[in-house]
Design a protein that fits this description.
Number of domains: 1
Strand order of the largest sheet: 5-4-3-2-1-16
Order of helices and strands: EHEHHEEEEEEEHEHEEEEEEH
Largest sheet: 6 strands, mixed
Shape: globular
Oligomer: single chain
Low-confidence stretches: none
Structural class: alpha/beta
Helix content: 25-40%
Number of helices: 6
Number of strands: 16
CATH class: Alpha Beta
CATH topology: Nitrilase/N-carbamoyl-D-aminoacid amidohydrolase
Length: 279
């Protein structure tokens, strides 16, 4: 395993269909590869973002029939890069359940999918500004946490709202993740209040790199997302960030030895204790 890794996070404003989503993200991935990225990460909802249920259902495909998935597999192979598709919204394939899956895909330089992760925590909230989200109505939550193998060590897979669950990230780190991906489409109010703070906290708690590519801006379905993609080091320092909502590419070079240094300095992952909780 090498001591450094050149990554790129892709920030998007994904349209409402998979064909349009692929056309939107492809030039950004090509730019990232041309600029030297070995691992490229895209946000949640890379293939499509559409919260109007009838329109979303009409746009859904099975994973193996989705044009964005097919195009991204071919693109990874053409460019010879590892590509973490932060998530695609596809049919879940669960018998009798019409809800979609919100699924991360890790694609290797041959174009093969080497890991899949379905979002564990779905976003059911009533925000102070009056916005209401019921992701559980349209997305079937996953059941299994995933640490994917990569040439640079374990890559823990999470999606968006998962960021608020520190026990998941701790479990990923204890299972071997030195990199944790947090592709997202954070709402503007929650993103402005919590996005960077949560990303830095998860990095500090786990002694891992947190790689957080985001959606940004006003989308076709009217939702507004926060953007501000960022890379956080295992000591909690922000290594790179975008300061806007516009589509773009964020590069960072990671010193992979920083994980071991952080965990040796504060070995909290080894210090769990059982305890009683009085009722």
């Amino acid at each position: 395993m090498t001591d450094t890794l050149d990554i790129a996070l892709i920030q998007t404003r994904t349209p409402a269909t998979a064909a349009a989503g692929l056309a939107h993200v492809e030039p950004l991935i090509r730019q990232a590869a041309a600029e030297g990225a070995q691992l490229i990460l895209t946000p949640e909802g890379t293939n499509l973002l559409e919260q109007r249920r009838a329109l979303r259902d009409a746009a859904l495909s099975d994973e193996d029939a989705d044009p964005a998935v097919a195009g991204l597999k071919a693109l990874a192979a053409e460019l010879g890069v590892w590509l973490l598709v932060g998530s695609v919204i596809v049919r879940s394939g669960a018998e009798g359940d019409p809800r979609a899956a919100n699924r991360s895909l890790l694609i290797d330089p041959s174009g093969a999918i080497t890991a899949r992760y379905d979002k564990l925590h779905v976003f059911d909230v009533d925000l102070p500004n009056g916005e209401t989200y019921r992701e559980s109505a349209s997305v079937r939550p996953g059941e299994t946490a995933v640490v994917a193998d990569s040439p640079w060590g374990g890559l823990g897979l999470t999606i968006c709202y998962d960021l608020r669950f520190p026990h998941l990230h701790r479990a990923l780190a204890k299972a071997g993740a030195s990199l944790i991906a947090v592709p997202a489409a954070f709402t503007r109010p929650t993103g402005e209040a919590h996005w960077e703070t949560l990303a830095r906290a998860r990095a500090i708690e786990t002694g891992a790199f947190v790689l957080a590519p985001a959606q940004g801006g006003t989308h076709e379905d009217g939702r507004q997302t926060w953007g501000r993609s960022l890379v956080v080091g295992p000591w909690g320092e922000v290594i790179a960030r975008l300061d806007h909502d516009e589509p773009g590419v964020l590069h960072a070079r990671l010193d992979l030895q920083a994980v071991e240094k952080a965990r040796a300095s504060v070995p909290a992952l080894r210090h769990d204790r059982d305890f009683d909780l009085p009722l």
